Every structure is written in structure tokens, then in C-alpha cells.
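Fig. S4 source data, part A: sequence.
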Amino acid sequence: MNYFLRALRDASKSWPLLLAAFLCSAGVAGLWGANIAALFPVIEVTLNGESLQNWNEKRIADAQIKLERHGQEIQQLRDRLTGGGIPEAAQQSLQNKINTLTLQDKGDEALLASAKALQPWIKNYLPSDPFETVLLVVVLIVISTFLKHCLLLTSTMLVSFVAMGISRDLRVKIFNKALELDRTQFMNQGSAGFMAQVTHTADMLSGGITTTFGGAITEPLKIIACLTGAFCISWQLTLACLTLAPVVGFMMVWLNRKMRSASKNILSQALGFHHVMLEALNNVLTVQAYTMEPFERQRFRDSTTQMMKIGLRHNFYRALANPITEVLGIGMVATSIAVGAWLVINKETQIFGVTMTEQPMTVPGIMVFFGMLIGASDPVRKLSGVITGINVGIVGAQSLYPLLDTPSKLKEKSNPYCLPSPHREIALRNVSFSYDGIDTVLNNVDVAINFGERIAIVGPNGGGKSTLINLICRFYDPTEGTVELDNVPLTELAVKDLRRRIAIVTQQTELFNETILYNIRYGRWDATEEEIEEAARKARAHDFIDEFPEGYKTKVGPNGFRLSGGQRQRIALARAFLRNAEILVLDEATSQIDVASEELIHEALSRYVENRTVIMITHRPSTLALADSILEVENGQVTKRPAANYRAA
């Protein structure tokens, strides 16, 4: 709940819009009650066939006569009390009559005051003909209904604007969080997890905010407006009609917990649903190659079936909220009909010795009272949907905000150290690293790489070669020790400043579903087309690009599926060449290139690597020939030796 309150506080920053929405909701509630109250003069005039002016004058005259008569009766009763000789029981009876008449006088005085206040308005602005009065009231009801819906639409749009703005901001924050986390933290959520958070969970929270500032304000205000009108007619009878409210309230609390639990399960299943779908689609080639389509279909069917079951349970509780709230509404109306009918038929003011009204109720009065309670029962029924929406929003907030509050392990100094370019040395000082805190991948590594040095990293798979590069690029921070650039720990530098010095090409080439021009330009966004073409020529990519009908404007497809493996790697190399970084990292960057292309690229590399540090993970002898030194990585240990010695061995 605290996270949802935090979301509401974020939304309250748009308080001018929310204030306008609240005023619109208040207007809707006022018109809702006014439309029902407006039926009173229609009923009164229609039944009695008289004008409102005459009706109001009669009210004034009747109230004055009653007050005068009651005054005389009270005086007579008091004279009898002061005359003496009356038994104590009779004295108590006389005093009760005096109290009853005094109470009735208060009601008559209030009626007289309201009637006198209305008289000038009725006389000056309402027609004297009964039928014309009915027409006027009907027209006013139609106009007020139209105005009510205009206000309701305005309130809904204002609240939706605020809620969608919050949803958009949260999506941006989630996306930014995904980009700033280190790789371990990112993989804890995975692409499917972040996708579910950006889409499904953000929508849940947006819906909760809309419900809170929309229905959670408008519907209660309608209830308050109608119950206030009912209280004005008879507060005792209104309280009697609300006897079921505590029971319904208890049931709604129970239902609340059930719906919240179901919403959590839906969100959890949605994460699994996205995971299964993305995993199968991202690896569709493997799925098809190993004829695992039936297996993946069943996996997807199972996940969606489970999601459907949880959704049905949630919808059951949601549907159950309607009859529970409707019981309260029907209970109010049924109680008012039974008690009100008895009071009108018997012209009584009490039932079971409990005073319900100060004076006997008229047929029009009790009908308006019924109308007020019916008007309150409709928003009570709609509250079930409001409660469901708030519960969904609470679950969404409980999922989103902990993720947003997760601090990145790649912390940056507020005032990072600035180093001149180019650097002089990269050094790992007693570095140890573990992904899970149990198995050590690198153990007490102490090695330095000078600027301009060309290093080849060799060793068995799983020995820690890629981990070494990940630490140098600061995709992770070491568990122990420090990685330094010119004797300054990488943690003292801005991540952006470090990575602008690095260009990297990996074995698993990552391309965007955009043009070739876009993918190469990603290395340096302000590059000209001439510079892009030059980089492509260096990477021996220009010739095959030029053969495409659209040339550099050719779309490569998702992750470059329209290109061969070798073509993808050469575009990635062109992107790295365009960056013109002082540190070039090649992680098996020529593994998917044919021998002829590899020779051309090595020729380009031999010129490109001058005056820059090159770090290569490779097993290919032709690439090793470019190296000055070799880093042998095995079982977490790193040994550096000259390349000539390694080749001789």
C-alpha cells in the first residue's frame, strides 16, 4: 500500500489538473442529487394540481398555524405542571408531551425558514401554471444531466491525462533502470521481465491511479450527496436504512484481500508468460532446427492456461463484489420502503418507540426519500469496480517501485576524476571476481596493459577470458581488488568517460532492426556518410553493402537476420572502426568470417591498431600474429608473456 501511496503522491504533483477533476466530480455529485430532489416539486404539483407558489404559501401558513397551536398546547401543559396536585407519573407524561411538541416545533421552524427563503425565488422565477412548472423542471433536469456528463467527461480526461503521464514516466524510468544496471542485475529480471514491467505492470498502476482520482472520488461524492438529501428529510430513517453497511464493509475487506492476492498471481504469471514467449521467439532457429515446435507450443499453452485460471479466479472475486455492494443498496431501499410505508400509512412519526421524523411524512416526501436512497445505491454498486481498480494499482506499484529503487552496483562518484586521452596503462591490481559469490572466476589477477600494446587473451572456455574484458569495460566491478586506468580506479571515473574510450566487437553480433547506415553510425552518431563509408571499407564491408539494391539504406532485420554471419561481423567491425576509440576490444570478432575476408580485415586491423590499445580474445593463429603479448587465462589465473615466446611454444 505504501508504494501505491507513493504513486499517488507522484500523481499529486499535477495538483492543478487533479483539483479541476475534483471540482468536476463535486459538480457531478451535486447535480446527481439535485436531479433527484427536483422530482419533488414535479410530484407535488402533479398530484395536487396546484402551482408551486400556492404550495409554498400553504407550507408557510401550515407551519405558522402549527407553531401557534403547539405554542398554546405547550403553554397549557406547563400551566398544568405548575398548578400542582398532579402525580409524579402524570408529570413525567406531561413533560414528555412538551418535549415532543418542542421537537416538532424545531422541524416546523426549519420548514418555515426554508419556505420563506424560497418564496421570492419561486414567485419571481417559476411559472404559476402547474403544467408549465412541470415542463420547466423537466427541462432543467435534462440540462443538468447534460452538464453532469460534460463534467464527468472532463474529470475522466483530466485524471486519465495525469495517470497516463505517470505511466509514461514510469516506463521511461524502468527503461532507464534496465540500461544502467550491471549485467547480473539485468539478468535477474531478463528482457521478458522488463517488458512485462513496461507494458502490463505500468498499465495496472495507471488504471489504479485513474480509478483512485476518478471513481474513488466521484462515486463516494454521489453517495454523500444523496445521503445528505436523505438526512435532510429524516436522519433517523436514513441511519436505520444503513444497518447493513457494517456487514457489507467487513465482507468488502475480506474480498479486498482475495482480489489483491489474485492480482499478484496474475502479475507473476504475466512475467512467466512473457518469458516463455520471448525465449521461444528469440531462439526460433534452434526451436525449428531441433523440431521442438510441439514442445514450445505446449509450454506456451500451459503458461497461458495457468494465466487463464488465475484470471478466472480474479474475475470471480471481482464479480462477487457486485452482489455484495448491491445487497447494501437493495437493503437500504427495502428498509426505507418498509419503514417509510408504515409511517405514511399510519401517519406516525415513530416506530418501535424510536422517533423517525419530527412530523408525519407525506407521499411526495417519502418518494423523494426513496429516490435519494436509490440514487445512493447506484454509486455503491459501482464502488466494487473502484475497489478492484485500486487493488490492481496497488499490486502494480508493489512490483514497479522496488525495481526502480534497486540501486545499480555500478555506482558513480558525484565528482568523477577526469583523465586525459589517450591513457597510458590499464591495470588489474589483485583482482578477484565471482558472479554468484561462491565460484571464483578470476583469482588474484595482477596484470598491466600499456597504451598501444596489442594483447591476445587465450585459454579454455569458461576460464575467465570474457570476464576479464567485462571488468575492463566495467560491465561488472571486481569482487576484490581494483581495475585502474592510469593508476585511477575505474570506480573513480564516469562510466560514460570510460566507455567512450572503448570500441567492442563480440562474437554474438548485436544489430538493430534498422538500416546498415544506422547500425554503423551507432559507433559515433555525429559521423558523416563519408566517414561511415570509410569505416565500412576498412572492415571490408563496403563491397557487399554496395551490392544491395538500397545500399547503406538496406534494412538488416531483427538482429541482422537478413545478413550472413560474416556480414554481420564486418558491420560490427565497421561500427567499432568508426568510433575511433583508443581501446579496441575484439571478442572472437573474426570467428564467422571466411579466410579471404579475414586476411583483408587483418590487413585493415594492422593499420587501424596503430596508436591504440587492442585486446583480443581469439584462438585463430592469424589473429594471434597481430599480438605483442599473450594473456593466458586458465582456472582463474592470468599469466602474461611475450607473443613470440607463446608462438614458439
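Fig. S4 source data, part B ends here. The chain has two domains: 2-51+127-405, 425-648.
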